[in-house]
C-alpha cells in the first residue's frame, strides 16, 4: 500500500505520534518543529536540511490538530523584535534562509520561513487555507510596516501557482491578500523602500497567475496609494492583459498619414485596393489623406524626373587609367 519505504516510515511515525498524544509533556510541534525555528544546536548541522525536510513530511501526514500551532507561532513571528527593528533595506537578507544558513548567520525569522515552506511543500491545499483565514482575521490588523508585508509575501509567494492549478476559487481569495496588505501598510507609513521587489511580485501575480480577474480591486488600491513612487511602479497593473496589437504609422507633414483602419470579416469587401491586404477569410483596408505629394495613378510616368551623370578617371590595378 506504500509507494516506497520512506512513505511507510512517515506513516509509522504518524501512528507513534497518535499513540503518545495526550500524554504529559508530549507536544509534537515543540518536539519536531520548534528546534528548527530556534536553530537548536542539538540538530547536527550536516543533516539540518534533511531533518528539516523530514519534519515537513511528518507534519504533512498528520491531521490539522497537530500543526495548528504553526499559525500561533506565526502570530509571534510577525511581531518579533528582530523583524520589527530590521532596516527595510536589509529585510530581504534577513528573510533569506539559504544565504543565512550557508554563512552560519540564520535567525528565528528566516528559520520559521523555512519550516513553513517545508510543511506546505509536502502538504496539500488544506495546509494553506488556514493561512488565508489567519490573514483575514488577525494578521491584517497586525501587519503595519514594510518588513511584515514582505514576510507575508515570502511565505505565500512560492505556492501561488500551485494554488492556481488546484483551486481557482482559493486562488482568487489569495491574490487579493497582497493588495489588502499593501493598502493597510500604506496607511501606516509614508513611503516604501523595496518598491521594485513589491512591484515585481505583484506583476508576477497578474501576468503569470491571475490575469485581469481582480482588476477592479487592483485599480482601487493602486489609485489610493499615498506613496507616489509605488503608485507609479504599479500603474501598468491596471492595464488589460489582452490588449490587441495596433499599427502606429507616423508620417511627415508632407507624407501620407493613416486616418482610420477598418477590418472586414467578409472576403468580398468593396474597400479600395489602395493599402488593402486581402486574405481568404478577412481583409483590412486603410484610408489615407495625402499631403502635398499627390498620389500617381498606377503605371503613370513620374513627373519632373532628372538624371545627372558624372565621369571620373582613376588608375586601375594594372597601372592604366580607367574611366568610371
From TrEMBL:
At the top level, the lineage of the source is Eukaryota
Keywords assigned? Nucleus, Transcription, Transcription regulation
- Is this entry keyworded Nucleus? yes
* Entry's Gene Ontology BP terms: positive regulation of gene expression; regulation of transcription by RNA polymerase II
**Location(s), subcellular:** Nucleus
Principal localization reads nucleus
**Which residue spans adopt a coiled-coil conformation according to this UniProt entry?**
none
The UniProt entry's GO CC annotations, sorted and at most eight, read:
mediator complex; transcription regulator complex
- Region Disordered: start and end of each range? 249-285
Keyword check for Endoplasmic reticulum, yes or no: no
The similarity comment for this entry is: Belongs to the Mediator complex subunit 23 family.
Name of this chain's protein = Mediator of RNA polymerase II transcription subunit 23
Amino acid at each position: 500500500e506504500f509507494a516506497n519505504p520512506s512513505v511507510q516510515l512517515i506513516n509509522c511515525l504518524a501512528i507513534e505520534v497518535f499513540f503518545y498524544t495526550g500524554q504529559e509533556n508530549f507536544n509534537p510541534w515543540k518536539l519536531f518543529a520548534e528546534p528548527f525555528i530556534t536553530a537548536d544546536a542539538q540538530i547536527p548541522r550536516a543533516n539540518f536540511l534533511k531533518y528539516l525536510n523530514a519534519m515537513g513530511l511528518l507534519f504533512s501526514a498528520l491531521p490539522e490538530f497537530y500543526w495548528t500551532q504553526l499559525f500561533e507561532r506565526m502570530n509571534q513571528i510577525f511581531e518579533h523584535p528582530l523583524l520589527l527593528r530590521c532596516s527595510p533595506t536589509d529585510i530581504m537578507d534577513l528573510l533569506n534562509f539559504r544565504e543565512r544558513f550557508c554563512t552560519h548567520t540564520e535567525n528565528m525569522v528566516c528559520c520559521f520561513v523555512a519550516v513553513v515552506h517545508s510543511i506546505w511543500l509536502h502538504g496539500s491545499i488544506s495546509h494553506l487555507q488556514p493561512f488565508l483565514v489567519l490573514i483575514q482575521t488577525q494578521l491584517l490588523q497586525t501587519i503595519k510596516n514594510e518588513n511584515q508585508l514582505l514576510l507575508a509575501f515570502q511565505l505565500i509567494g512560492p505556492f501561488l501557482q500551485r494554488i492556481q492549478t488546484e483551486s481557482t476559487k482559493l486562488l482568487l481569495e489569495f491574490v487579493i491578500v497582497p493588495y489588502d496588505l499593501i493598502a493597510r501598510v500604506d496607511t501606516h507609513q509614508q513611503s516604501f523602500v523595496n518598491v521594485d521587489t513589491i512591484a515585481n511580485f505583484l506583476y508576477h501575480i497578474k501576468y503569470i497567475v491571475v490575469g485581469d480577474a481582480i482588476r477592479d480591486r487592483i485599480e482601487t488600491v493602486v489609485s489610493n496609494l499615498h506613496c507616489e513612487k509605488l503608485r507609479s511602479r504599479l500603474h501598468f497593473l491596471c492595464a488589460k492583459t489582452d490588449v490587441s496589437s495596433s499599427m502606429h504609422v507616423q508620417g511627415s507633414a508632407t507624407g501620407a498619414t493613416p486616418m482610420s483602419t477598418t477590418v472586414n470579416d467578409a472576403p468580398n469587401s468593396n474597400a479600395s485596393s489602395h493599402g488593402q491586404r486581402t486574405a481568404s477569410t478577412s481583409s483590412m483596408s486603410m484610408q489615407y489623406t495625402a499631403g502635398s505629394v499627390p498620389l500617381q495613378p498606377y503605371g503613370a510616368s513620374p513627373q519632373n524626373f532628372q538624371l545627372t551623370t558624372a565621369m571620373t578617371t582613376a588608375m586601375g590595378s594594372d597601372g592604366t587609367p580607367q574611366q568610371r
